[in-house]
Amino acid sequence: MSKPKVVFLCVHNSCRSQMAEGFARFHGGYQVEALSAGANPVGHLSARAIEAMAELGIDIGAQFPQSLDHVTGEFDALVTLGASDPGPRIAARLREDWPVKDPEGRSDQAYLDIRDDIRRRVQTLIANLRSHR
Q1: pLDDT exceeds 90 at position 14
Q2: Per-residue pLDDT at 87
């Protein structure tokens, strides 16, 4: 049985989708394949995102923003976080749009609340994908 593949998409691929990818790798371990991309990626990860994840013992510092153009293959789940669904060019069995606010420019507590919301959503997604295998 192959492991579930998940892709997380946001606009810049520097914060929300990167945190989601980090949580999926952490909570899914070797049983989930996760990646992230952006509609308009920037050249670096958010320092605040790296720091917020490090507080939980999750290192996303080696991840890097990438374009949707680099996303190929078929996925079990495609999750958008503030980005529009790329349509049929990315094949996915399940598509979800998470209404997660952009944490950039928000207070420290709001930033951490958004991080924790992403974590809960990722944990639920992974549980659902595992139960449908």
Answers
A1: yes
A2: 76
